[in-house]
């Protein structure tokens, strides 16, 4: 009679290789063995092995580690495998066939996965972390309008850079800001597809590939009209006299050298007044990287003066600041104040260019500089933004070089 159930739970738990050996197998009976091997860490690995012979060939089939598959479960598995052998079924071939079937099903799933399906899956996972409702809507609308008509129904694994070029070529030069955002969104979707093993190889929407085909993207249709930095303190003094949310938002935007969308979309959860810090999440930044903004004395004062009546710090439309600015300084733009800050920093401070560029959340220098500067240089930017705030707080009297803001406005645009 065949021996069975020779091992006990305690023996399984304490089993070790025989003295002087690396591996030992203990028979439980009826084709079932416990294999014990020494691990590199000095411990022991215990695994179940089902040994059988079929058509003159011997096979060892693993049933799992003992810490996962207990003694009773291993015996049940062994009994099921013996029944398969009695029926003429090779357990190892059966396992291989099941694996091949799973891989075939996965391949069919991948084959059937379109770019649109990937985009929708990516959006479903990530959109809840995007605090800006406008950003969520634009994410959907730009792919719907510019991308899906061309590649939406294509297998995500078959799309190449040439397809992306066809999507972006009509808008690359015509509406470059939109083209840039669409490119990044397409790239994110392909990163999702690659991570999910829905395609192999490199991301076909990488910026350097498209730049080689379409040329360097030219952001904007010319420079934003910027107020000369010598006139900025007088402008800020006039702005501080205005009692409105749009005035405080514009003042805050100038003090932080932020973009309109970044300021308008700011929520209280991004603000830490005690640490004098505004942290803009990556999904709200053009660079798709988190940006930490040091807050000057006046910026903190503005925040403390505002009521907390919702999530948003400045519950305004995108046009509110521009409308205010048109009444104060016709011909200039909100975005232009970033250039005002840039010119001031270059002319009146000794900070390296890459510190100034980081304050503006721009890409910093060439690849060598990027590799060397693995920090956001926050402490240096704290000092820079304090100096900017101090400069804006002190209007200077008119001189031969610095004219009164009202006089200059009348000279340029008429009374």
Supply the key terms.
415 residues, alpha+beta, Double Stranded RNA Binding Domain, DNA polymerase, domain 1, hpI Integrase, Chain A, 3 domains, four-stranded antiparallel beta sheet, three-stranded antiparallel beta sheet, 18 helices, 7 strands, elongated
How does this structure look, described?
The protein has helices spanning 9-14, 71-86, 91-112, 115-126, 133-151, 161-172, 176-195, 207-214, 232-240, 245-256, 260-264, 297-305, 320-328, 336-348, 353-359, 367-372, 378-392, 405-413, and strands at residues 23-29, 32-38, 44-54, 57-65, 271-272, 277-280, 291-294. By secondary structure, the protein is α+β, with helices and mostly antiparallel strands. It folds into 3 domains: 9-109, Integrase, DNA-binding domain (Double Stranded RNA Binding Domain); 115-214, Orthogonal Bundle (DNA polymerase, domain 1), CATH 1.10.150.130; 229-413, Intergrase catalytic core (hpI Integrase, Chain A, Orthogonal Bundle), CATH 1.10.443. The strands form 2 sheets. The chain has a 4-stranded antiparallel sheet, with helices on one face. Strands 5-6-7 form a 3-stranded antiparallel sheet. Strand 2 (32-38) and strand 3 (44-54) form a beta hairpin. Helix 4 crosses helix 7 and helix 15 crosses helix 17. It starts with 8 loop residues before the first helix and ends with a helix. The relative contact order is 0.07.
